[in-house]
Design a protein that fits this description.
Two copies of one chain form a homodimer. Chain A has eight helices and six strands; from the N terminus they run αααββαβαβαβαβα.
């Protein structure tokens, strides 16, 4: 449609923007106009930031995090507890835990979870690296910070079996009532888990 | 937050993405990861498309449309009816009318609508150019395709007064029931307008 009225360059920009999560064809057009109307403040800086990211971002060979250095900032951080490895599905989960400041430890990004339906098998995940790191003498605990979904829990079981021969403690995140959450809106599974794992006041 | 874990380059990309309409901080992080995970297919092409857009897109001196040429593709299109000028608030409205194939005519982009509350006064809009084009001998009709809001209709009245001395017909878009729309969900103003402007079957 738009290529006939605004030239192929704008149409191409819209088509690429529409492939971002959260943007559809209509919001991609709005985003393109927004960018074009803010050329110096936004369009040029964003083009440069993307170019820099495309050229400089690498995946950390050790933990699977993304950064502009390998080993990544987290793996190079000497202030972290090296005896704990937090196992996550993806980098977004790592970011979420870091934003929360939940733990100052190392991470291991699996790059997915096992999913027979989606054809994700063990060889698609960074499991060899995880077992190797779990076998290091300094590693004492693996925290499985995986989603509380069927695939996430299947993966947790699989990882637990994989490292069962190692002298490493395996833990997982607690289930319970979200902070600020109302009981009335919670599902029965969460309420039952929260009741069973109740803590002393 | 994230700058401590993923380097300033990724944090800058997220901050710039968060300034796009429709993306907030959380979806900007998702978009950044999506881009980084698709470096060759999406991140690099999008960086290039933005660079091209930043360098080559110009505003048409005649009509205010954006394009990579001036005059723009529409102003150079000899197949359009030169006697009609469609007056729109912004380029997004021009695109919407062109997608609909509603009219094959010239356009004039005002670059906004009069809005005392937002401090938008006549000198902020492309009104001089509009009057000059309306005064051209070939121009016979101005179609005011402005939003049916208070500001849009104020602007329509203002434009009508501005060209009142010229031998040009001024029209506006019809009000009525949207195609596919249900009467039950329409406001009284639209229903009244649709009734008053009813057409013969």
């Amino acid at each position: 449609m738009a290529q006939a009225i605004a030239g192929p360059e704008i149409e191409r920009l819209i088509q690429l923007l529409a492939r971002l999560p959260g943007l559809g064809p209509r919001s991609a057009r709005r985003a393109a106009l927004h960018l074009i109307n803010r050329r110096e403040q936004l369009l040029s800086p964003l083009a440069d930031a993307m170019r820099v990211a495309a050229e400089r971002i690498v995946v950390c060979e050790s933990c699977g995090n993304i950064d502009t250095s390998d080993p990544c900032t987290i793996c190079r951080d000497m202030g972290r507890d090296r005896s704990i490895l937090v196992v996550v599905e993806g980098v977004s989960d790592l970011w979420a835990l870091e934003r929360a400041g939940a733990v100052r430890a190392g991470y291991h990004v699996l790059g997915g979870v096992l999913s027979p339906l989606d054809g994700v098998r063990p060889e698609h995940l960074a499991l060899d690296g995880l077992v190797a790191r779990a076998a290091l003498p300094e590693t004492r605990e693996l925290i499985l910070a995986l989603n509380a979904t069927v695939d996430g829990q299947t993966t947790a079981h699989y990882v637990t079996d994989l490292v069962a021969h190692l002298p490493v403690r395996v833990t997982k995140l607690a289930h319970g009532v979200p902070v600020g959450g109302e009981l009335d809106y919670l599902d029965e599974g969460t309420l039952t888990a929260a009741m069973r794992q109740r803590t002393a006041v």
